[in-house]
């Protein structure tokens, strides 16, 4: 049998009749990690189970959370579009998703609901479909250790108390984590993540204000 060369990463998971003649602009500057993920067939990608999610959070290996290859490709396309249309991802987040006119907090961390917004993760990781991924955006800073880039003990305690207060009575299983500074895709707006296993749909609509993630709205351009 003739030897077949592997497909370029930018053609993987793309129907043959939609193959571009060359690498799209939104993929030309991908780092090696993203090239490797995007170049993996979706069929070879294993979704994380709830037990695996809990363990990664427990050992603080949140760098192991990855998007499904075709979703990462769409995410790269979307963020490329945002930079062209809005000038930056942060501008889009503030104007369209958070709808915050200013970033001045009304008080101390977690003191005022107006300083917090709970939304779906627009481009969630490759997870068991029973897992819901939320992002909690805040106008106030949550301190990190300048040497490690990880949350300070005081900051972790503040987040833990908030998460327990908001989700503890309504959700049976959930975890939270805050990305390392090096992993954040939106640096200018403070945020952390909450993942819930089989949460009540009505509670999700209530807590997010009926939010719909961008992955459900964005048509591939």
TrEMBL record:
Gene Ontology terms: cellular component: cytoplasm
| Pfam families, per the entry | DUF3605 (PF12239)
Gene Ontology BP terms: N-acetylglucosamine metabolic process
InterPro entries assigned: DUF3605
Which protein are we looking at?
A: N-acetylglucosamine-induced protein 1
Q: Write down the species.
A: Paraphoma chrysanthemicola
